[in-house]
């Protein structure tokens, strides 16, 4: 495996993903992880991420110095190579002009890091400081117009450094450089595959769970669905899934989950139709935060009730609760230079964990990135409509109906949303965007239909692209696709006479409307 030390770069997770794309397991640790702890993991290589700090800066993150004595190859990226220079006797200086954007790398000396790569490469820079003197034993092997030390190495110790960012897509051959580091320099084998992950995880889950029973809140989203399929493979009928219909689902959603998991996979599935309960609680509520709170609390109650019902009269209680927690949710992190972006973001899991229920946790996906989860799902035989599914908020359509939630308004939104989805799929856009959905606005406007004046509701269409939901941009969808969506909604959905396209990005808007 490869250990990546996080010095606060926005790209740390991207580095980890690139390494895994080489079929080598990678793990992110905080920058100050003790060398002993790192050595205990027996990594074949270590990567220092970039970071926003300056090596001399107050509070700048540094690694445990003993890390340089472990005899393990190290690759420093950007701030990471500056750290290496700084700690091993070189010099780093604040540069008068920041090098940001595309650049051209000229290799001057042959190195295994550039095995099978051309001598001139397009690269992507983003740094202020730069190395001005190399530590003893180091030499430059590549340069850019702006920096004589764009690539450095200390071949005996197998220390390598890149001033630019090989992990981003703007460095087209960057992945090959990282691959050379892991294969040529660290000697890693390609043994991280989703097939081997599935086998190993099934074995671990069986060990962990023994003869006990596991309960899982299945939402139909990618994470809980893949967790369910994986656990079902591991422990079969010792797994029970609870699917709560909160009345705020999209059209056909409950049916799809029952068909896929009940009929096809034969998972023990308890379907709870709690829609009346939820809608009653939401009656008259228009405040977005209150909606969310009510739905969250109600979910916990419904889930508890379902668990109690399932355990009644049985000896075997559920000892374990399974969750579809992913790797980005569990990466340990430390704030760097007060940069909140470097702190772990709070994650909202499927409806939230019942806090006062005493379960042990089973989290079979906690080592995986989202792409890997999708691949595991596909390998387990889940259909594309589930594994490639767009994110859907826990509070469901409630946060896409502005104003009061009524049965009638739910009907309108469901029908409009189904048209958006159908047209996105028909035009091949659905799987190319982050999210595409309809929202129902709390306004009515005047229109004409035939010879009659109408006074009806407005649908907003929201289609965004995003990497992780933290920032997003609206999709420049072709006009003809938008036109089709609009005319179908107005013609087919009773009660709607106007459709708008939301052209705001996040920030300052959010993806959802509430
Ligand atoms: P916003 O609206 O904050 O959404 O830009 C960012 C992403 O998160 C999803 N989202 C949620 N997901 N529970 C969830 O599981 C929630 O309460 C929730 N609220 C928003 C949203 O769909 C988008 O992908």
From TrEMBL:
- Which Pfam families does this UniProt record tie to the protein? GATase (PF00117), GMP_synt_C (PF00958), NAD_synthase (PF02540)
Sorted keywords for this record are:
ATP-binding, Glutamine amidotransferase, GMP biosynthesis, Ligase, Nucleotide-binding, Purine biosynthesis
**The enzyme's E.C. designation:** 6.3.5.2
Q: Quote the pathway field.
A: Purine metabolism; GMP biosynthesis; GMP from XMP (L-Gln route): step 1/1
Enzyme class label: ligase
The reply to whether Protein biosynthesis figures as a keyword in the UniProt entry is no
Q: Does the keyword Transmembrane apply?
A: no
Which SUPFAM superfamilies does the UniProt record give?
Adenine nucleotide alpha hydrolases-like (SSF52402), Class I glutamine amidotransferase-like (SSF52317), GMP synthetase C-terminal dimerisation domain (SSF54810)
Domain GMPS ATP-PPase per the UniProt entry, residue ranges: 192-389
The catalysed reaction is: XMP + L-glutamine + ATP + H2O = GMP + L-glutamate + AMP + diphosphate + 2 H(+)
Q: What are the catalytic residues?
A: 78 (nucleophile), 165, 167
Question: Which InterPro entries does the record cross-reference, listed alphabetically?
Answer: Class_I_gatase-like, GATASE, GMP_synth_C, GMP_synth_GATase, GMP_synthase, GMPS_ATP_PPase_dom, NAD/GMP_synthase, Rossmann-like_a/b/a_fold
GO CC annotations on file: cytosol
GO MF entry, a single one: GMP synthase activity
The UniProt record gives the binding positions of ATP as 219-225
How does this protein assemble?
Homodimer.
The cross-references to HAMAP family, in alphabetical order and at most eight, read: GMP_synthase
Biological role stated in the UniProt entry: Catalyzes the synthesis of GMP from XMP.
Instruction: From the Swiss-Prot or TrEMBL record, give the protein name.
Output: GMP synthase [glutamine-hydrolyzing]
Q: Which organism is it from?
A: Chthoniobacter flavus Ellin428
Which gene carries the instructions for this protein? guaA
